[in-house]
Specification:
It is a single chain. The protein is an alpha+beta fold and about 950 residues long. It has five domains: about 375 residues, Alpha/Beta hydrolase fold, catalytic domain (Rossmann fold, 3-Layer(aba) Sandwich); about 170 residues, Galactose-binding domain-like (Jelly Rolls); about 30 residues; about 220 residues, 3-Layer(aba) Sandwich (Rossmann fold); about 60 residues, Alpha-Beta Plaits (2-Layer Sandwich), CATH 3.30.70.100. Helices cover about 30% and strands about 25% of the residues. It has 23 helices and 39 strands. The strands form seven sheets. The chain has an eleven-stranded mixed sheet with strand order 1-2-4-3-7-8-9-10-11-12-25, with helices on both faces. Strands 13, 14, 15, 17, 18, 19, 20, 21, 23 and 24 form a ten-stranded antiparallel sheet that branches. A hairpin with a 5-residue loop joins strand 26 and strand 27. Helix 4 crosses helix 5 and helix 8 crosses helix 9. InterPro entries: AAA+_ATPase, AB_hydrolase_fold, ABC_transporter-like_ATP-bd, ABC_transporter-like_CS, Galactose-bd-like_sf, P-loop_NTPase, Xaa-Pro-like_dom, Xaa-Pro_dipept_C. It comes from Catenuloplanes nepalensis. Belongs to the ABC transporter superfamily. This is ABC-2 type transport system ATP-binding protein.
Length: about 950
């Protein structure tokens, strides 16, 4: 047996002719090639080398300093084909590894990129001087010399490389200071950096002197800790912006080699770590007292681009983050104005990231990359047209469920409007003068932001402590406002201490009371010379940090003035201040032109492809529908004023199941018609066909004479609640109703909104989010939705489901009143007692067919027994005993009488003649009795679907 197997295999396989051998070999070679291509490592387009370079800098220019460098060289760069270069600097607390990814992108794009670890960080030597002109800036100049000596780097002249400089935060300030000090820099892209380092760490939103500013202790402490450890902690600049330019050059990377060679340099106080003595002394002074000195401010001033902006001639792209409590938008604004005053080309871009927001949403990262490459390609590489100098900004548009991140929209404005906006809007806030307390030692303090996660407060909410803040609130906004820039508010303060440190905030408060402090941004103010009483206080204009935010219609503004804040140093002495806010709050408004994102082309291509597919499917469906039935647009004149006519309705499914075999009934104006039947009788199927949710197999439905078809315009005259309500849980009841009506395409004025709400009886609950609704509240909201526009025909499936008895009684009156105005109502319900009390007519369905229809009293019919309410039951019984064929029975204080054919009028007359008072005569037969007689106690329907 085993010896026969190969022969069988040979017979089973096809005969290998020369043509098949060639084809098989070619296929095998193709598969092998594709497999090799898939697994072969992709050529990155560049190489890089690491080198410890010793440069000479310092005040005298001969101080040796060792810098850890990494040099990226694009493929093909040579003496014959030199390439432009780029210096890429990292953020505070980082090192050259922090910007590795950005360096790779730029090297692949054709730039020779030199990155390095700044002095005092990682494996580089020296001390931290905060981008001092004599130290870090001179170090960068020596690196320019090194690039100028590289044969593969393009030169404008001997010793002058064709070079740009970029970096984020600490690296961004270096790019500005280097361009001011060295004219060889051809273009710069500084991001999320500072203009005035003293003003950044000692801000005063009322415009006071830097030396009197409010110390930003949380950020300063974070920086000091990171610098003292030589960057080993991973980086205080928090993930700065993100882009191919190195805008994401925050200090996220931990140095591979640890701290400086040999640890803390000799002669340096160990408490200062690798900070230079004067920098350390400045921090210690401010951190200890909470107040600056002129000497400390002078140290910060020498590291501030503000003093040298008039010397920057290199075209500048300034990228600044919206989510940045360290270096807010005002820093970029000051840099832009100072550089533009020289006639230097400047472009400003605000994006939804920063020291608190990281690299920002993907949409913004791609946009910053594109802007950076466009800027460098023109001004450094000499390729492409000159980029526009318009203003670009982003605004958060929502949440992308696919990427699980924020999505932003970008806008452009031809002329940069600064922080005051293109126009302004005034919102009035109200509230009396209020006392606020500064706690002893400044603790506990309000929480508005945390270093590196300031945006967290936008999600979790800032914590304003009771007794330490005053609030002033506006009315709901009548329309949405697109705020872009620095809001301004006028405050007055009084204090027996004569001085106060205040923190002013602007909250966006939604209709549910949820308050958002944009990116945790706060305006600190130090006020001196204050009077003891608020009536004597002078107004002070406070400029709040710039924001970009859409404040929606119906939201409120809340101005909060607090006496403490965890991020800042507050006076240690306890005090009680009195604060007031002038009513008018000025909001800057931006109305930019939407900008196409870098990935928009692919999205449009995908959208076009999907639209083509959808169009093709629609055409197929329309053709199929046209073949199966012809749309009847005629109007039956005899039914033109009849709300509903159902004629010969039958619904049979593909598997042969018959849900409705034959249904005929009419609903006329002024009628409330109850559709009754046991479970599975066909009620829901009838309603689904009526609302166009499914197609009948046979028969037709006419609404005001029009034959019902899916999407028929006559459906606008019908309101319905079928198969339960469905609402968006994050919207309020009112917002859900507005969204529903907007989808109809009809004017809001036609919605008769207030009337529908009054009918539904929701009251103030309509302003709550529907996720907080009970089942009954959702049902009432659904009824209100069905009644929007007060349609001429109202179709309701179990409208009292989830309502309590008082609400059911109210709904009964509502439906009766609704029909009396010439409208009509069709109600499907299993509550027979309610149908009997509510409906004028009834249609009883059983097993897919109608077994009875007509006025309710006709279906109920004459009752063989009656219930008599009399004033003397015993006397009445004695009278009735004397009547032939009448059998009386006393029951619960009343009298039940079996008439046995005797007319009710004769019974009543006999009682009245005998002096017995008759208050009421009620038939004992009910709709339930008639219903059971028609369908039987054990009736089962056909299995309604």
């Amino acid at each position: 047996m085993p010896r026969a197997l190969p022969a069988r295999l040979r017979r089973a396989l096809p005969r290998m002719s020369p043509r098949r051998w060639i084809a098989g070999s070619a296929a095998l070679a193709l598969v092998a090639g594709l497999t090799g291509w898939a697994v072969w490592p992709e050529d990155p387009g560049f190489t890089f080398t690491d080198e410890m370079l010793t440069v000479r800098s310092g005040p005298s220019g001969d101080e040796p300093i060792t810098l850890d460098t990494r040099y990226f060289l694009p493929d093909g760069a040579s003496t014959e084909q030199p390439v432009p270069a780029l210096l890429l600097a990292h953020g505070f607390g980082g090192d050259m590894h922090s910007v590795h990814a950005q360096a790779e992108e730029l090297a692949a794009a054709g730039y020779a990129v030199l990155t390095w670890t700044a002095r005092g960080f990682g494996r580089s030597g020296g001390q931290i001087h905060l981008d001092s002109a004599d130290h870090e800036v001179k170090d960068a100049q020596r690196l320019l010399d090194w690039l100028a000596a590289r044969p593969e780097v393009r030169r404008d002249a001997p010793g002058d490389p064709r070079v740009g400089a970029a970096g984020g935060s600490y690296g961004g300030a270096l790019a500005l200071l280097l361009a001011a000090q060295d004219s060889r820099v051809d273009a710069i892209v500084p991001s999320i950096t500072w203009n005035d380092l003293g003003r950044a760490f000692l801000p005063d939103a009322a415009g006071g002197a830097v030396v009197d500013g409010v110390f930003k202790k949380a950020w300063a402490g974070t920086f000091f800790s990171s610098g003292a450890s030589g960057g080993a902690s991973g980086g205080a600049s928090g993930g700065a912006s993100g882009g191919a330019s190195g805008a994401a050059s925050g200090g996220a990377g931990v140095p591979a080699g640890g701290g400086a060679p040999g640890g803390v340099p000799a002669g340096i106080d160990p408490a200062c770590g690798r900070f230079a003595p004067d920098v350390c002394a400045a921090f210690m002074t401010i951190a200890t007292t909470g107040r600056a000195t002129p000497e400390a401010v002078a140290v910060l001033d020498r590291s501030s681009p503000a003093r040298v902006l008039d010397r920057i001639k290199a075209p500048t792209l300034l990228v600044q983050g919206l989510a940045d409590t360290l270096f807010p938008l005002s820093e970029a604004d000051a840099n832009a104005r100072g550089i533009a005053a020289n006639g230097t080309p400047v472009r400003i871009a605000w994006y939804a990231g920063g020291h608190d927001g990281g690299a920002g949403p993907r949409t913004d990262r791609d946009r910053v990359d594109e802007l950076t490459r466009e800027w460098l390609d023109h001004y450094v590489a000499g390729a492409g047209a000159a980029p526009p100098q318009d203003f670009v900004y982003s605004r958060v548009a929502g949440f992308d469920a696919m990427d699980r991140g924020l999505v932003t929209n970008a806008y452009t404005i031809a002329d940069y409007p600064g922080l005051t906006g293109e126009t302004t809007a005034t919102v009035v806030v109200a509230g009396p003068a209020q006392p606020i307390a500064n706690p002893p030692g400044g603790n506990p303090a309000a929480l508005s932001s945390l270093p590196g996660v300031g945006a967290l407060s936008s999600v979790l909410g800032a914590a304003d402590l009771p007794g330490q803040h005053a609030a002033f609130v506006s009315e709901p906004l009548p329309e949405a406002l697109d705020v872009g820039g620095s809001p301004r508010v006028t405050v007055r303060a009084a204090s027996p201490a004569g001085e106060a440190v205040l923190f002013v905030k602007l909250y966006d408060v939604d209709p549910d009371g949820g308050a958002t402090l944009s990116e945790g941004l706060v305006a600190p103010v130090r006020l001196t010379g204050l009077p003891a009483t608020i009536d004597d206080a002078a107004p002070v204009t406070v400029t709040l940090p710039a924001i970009v935010r859409r404040i929606d219609e119906g939201h409120r503004l809340r101005i909060v003035v607090a006496a403490s804040d965890q991020a800042f140093a507050s006076p240690a002495e306890p005090a009680v201040h009195t604060v007031a806010v002038e009513p008018a709050v000025t909001l800057p408004i931006l109305t930019g032109t939407p900008m196409t994102g870098p990935d928009a082309v692919w999205r449009w291509v995908l959208a076009g492809l999907l639209a083509t597919i959808a169009l093709g499917l629609a055409v197929v469906l329309l053709l199929a529908r046209a073949r199966h039935r012809r749309v009847d647009r005629s109007v039956a004149a005899e039914h033109a004023d009849t709300p509903l006519v159902v004629d010969g309705l039958r619904k049979e499914y593909a598997d042969g199941f018959v849900a409705v075999s034959r249904v005929d009934f009419t609903v006329r104006r002024g009628q409330v018609v109850g559709l009754l039947g046991p479970n599975g009788a066909g009620k829901t199927t009838t309603l689904r066909v009526l609302m166009g949710l499914t197609q009948p197999t046979r028969g037709e439905i006419r609404i005001f004479g029009h034959r019902l078809t899916p999407g028929s315009p006559v459906l606008s005259r019908v309101g319905a609640l079928v198969e339960g309500p469905g609402f968006l849980p994050h919207l309020t009841g009112e917002q859900n109703l507005r969204a529903y009506w907007k989808a109809t395409g009809r004017p809001w004025a036609d919605a008769r909104f207030e009337e529908a709400l009054e009918i539904a009886g929701l009251g103030d609950s309509v302003h709550r989010r529907t996720r907080k609704y009970s089942h009954g509240m959702r049902q009432r909201l659904a009824i209100a939705q069905a009644m929007l526009g007060l349609p001429e025909l109202l179709v309701l499936d179990e409208p009292t489901d989830g309502l309590d008895p008082p609400q059911i009684a109210q709904m009964r009156r509502v439906l009766q009143r609704y029909a009396t105005d010439g409208r009509a109502v069709l109600v499907s319900s299993h509550l027979l007692a309610e149908v009997e009390q509510t409906c004028t007519h009834a249609v009883v369905v059983n097993k897919g067919t109608i077994v009875a229809s007509g006025p309710v009293e006709e279906i109920v019919g004459d009752s063989p027994t009656v219930h008599l309410d009399v004033d003397d039951p015993e006397a009445a019984r004695a009278v009735l005993d004397g009547l032939a064929d009448v059998r009386p029975l006393v029951e619960n204080g009343g009298l039940v009488v079996d008439l046995n054919g005797t007319p009710r009028s004769e019974v009543v007359a006999a009682l009245v003649r005998a002096g017995v008072g008759v208050d009421r005569v009620v038939p004992r037969r009910r709709l339930e009795d008639a219903f059971l007689a028609l369908v039987g106690d054990n009736s089962r329907g056909s299995g309604d679907r």
